[in-house]
Structures are given as C-alpha cells and as structure tokens.
Here is the input.
Amino acid sequence: MATFRKLKKGFTLIELLVVIAIIAVLIGLLLPAVQKVRDAAARTQCLNNLKQLGLAMHNFHDTNNRFPAAHQIGTTWYPPLYQMDAPPGGRTPGSSYPAEGPFWSWAARIAPYIEQDNAFKTFDMRGVSAAWPWWQYIPGLPKTGDNTVNAIKVKSFICPADGRLDQINHDPGNGTAPAGGINGAALTGYLGVSGRDQFKESIAGSGNPSPTVKLPGQDGMLYVNSGVKMTGITDGTSNTLLIGERPAANTQLYGWLWAGSGDPPYFGATDVVLGVRERPTSPSGTPDFFRPGTINDPQDLHRYHFWSLHSGGANWLLADGSCRFMTYAAGTANVTVVGNINVSLLEAMASRNGGEVFSEN
Here is the structure.
C-alpha cells in the first residue's frame, strides 16, 4: 500500500526578500529612537554633573566668602598689560606671585568639595616659582606624564556624550622640566563663564560686536584673578551663567582641567574659562559666539566658543545652582542694547551685574 507524506513548503526567495526588507525598515525606525534615548540619558547625566559642580562652587563660597577665580597670575607677567584685578588672595610677600599659587583653575579650587580631596592634597599651591603647577608628580610614583598631578582624571568633569577614552594630553614640555619634560593633563568639557569675553577694555561703536565694537568683558563669574561674591551678582543668581560646555578637540591642546593658561594673554580663555563672545589675543579680536562645533578640529577653530555634543544646544549651570539646556539661537538672538551696541541673550545672562533687561521667551 502506497503512503504519502505531506511535504513542508519552504520560503520562496521573494518571501525571504520581503521579510528582510521588513526587518530592515523596522531597524531603520528603531535606531533613531534608541539614539534619542541615549542622547536624552547623556543630557540628563550631564545636567547632574553640572549640578554637582554647582554645589561645590557654593560650598567653596561658603568657606571662602567668594567664588574661585578662573585662575590667578601676576598682574605684570605678560605684556601687553591688559586690565585685570589683583589676585583675590593677595601676593606672596616680596613677589609678584599670587599667594594662592599661579594658574590653578577654578576646578582645582573646588576639588575638596567634589570628593577629590586626595587629589587636592597632591597639589602644591604655594605662591612661589618652585610650585609651578605643571610637572608636579604624585608622591611615590615614577615621574612620568600620567603620574603628574594634572593627569588625575575625574569622570564628572566630562560630559557623558563624549565617549572618548583617552582624556589626557601628553605635553613634551619646554625642555626645562624634570623627568624628560613629559607633562600629563586631564581634560574637561566644562569651562567657567568669564562673562562677555576675557578683556575689560571697551571699544565705542554701534551695532553687533565686532573687532571695532566692544562692551567691557570680565563681567561674569569666573575670570582671571576674580573673586566674585554672591552679593555682587546684582542681576540675580538665577539669571547669571556660571559654567558651560565646550568639549576638548581631538588635538587635546585646550581644556586642561586642573591648571591651564589658555592662549595669550594667558587669562585662562580656551583652557579653563570662556566668554560667550570670546575674543582671541586682544580686545580687537574677532568675537566668536555660541554655535555648533566638532571634535574633529585639527586647527582648534572651535576652541573660542561654547558648544556641546548634544543636539541643538548645550547645558549650562547658573549661579543659583540650577541648570538648563539652551539652544544655539541664544548666542545670536539680540535682546537689548547697551551703549548703542547689541547684546545677545547669552551675553545678558553671562553678565553678573550689567542690569540688562531681557526675556528668554
């Protein structure tokens, strides 16, 4: 007796192609959603980082009755001598050195308040030439670049959206340093806000800021030799920017965490602080502004403006400890006029006592 078996029908080539196409479409729809979730998580963690820095800043103020300076230098060190305040802690007797040590950043000053007291204790912050902040080494370790105190990395100073693993610059030095001159420097993506720019000088004119039109800078919270007190923030702490985002480029030449000079005149701009309309080198430099940037920047063209790895804008810490996300439009949207010169929303918020009247809406 003959028996018959029912043959199982397989997928045809067309059916397989249809299934593959459907899967590809689903993946195409899913990936952007996954990326949006990741971006949102990174932005939230970034805000948390800034909030922790804000708490540390307030704790420093409670202890010292002032906020830290961007960094401190001698007022006659680097001609031409643009205007600056005297070091807030005074000078070492018989010396031009700041008594609290030169070039140590605001981040170094708040280290004890962000659970980095062990790092802070390795910093030699004496106001003498022998305590130059670079090429100091962690006691008991070989004198190599990664063992400099400046190379101590802190996760909360890097935005989670920045996935680069190597966040240490290795500087060969200038030939006068010990141990072959190798200096390591941890990097940060958070810079203090010095105000409009790093220069107190003004240039009379009208219209938008330009090389021939300028309002005074050093009007923010953290600038060279600053010692801003809470009572000096007459614009209101909830309206005044304290820290913003500016990732280090792949060159790793700017954004040094614990101590950084920045470009001439070495007021710290591009390394530890920035103005929201920062000017390179001199008061007549072309002002930059808050706009998108990229870490693939071999000429470091984006070092003079705030930007972030978040989509559409960046996170900011304000003087009251609150944080907010602001779009790039804030960098160019004019909200008021001072002395016939247009003032953008971000400039108004970067000023601690300018009296600008503006609305964020």
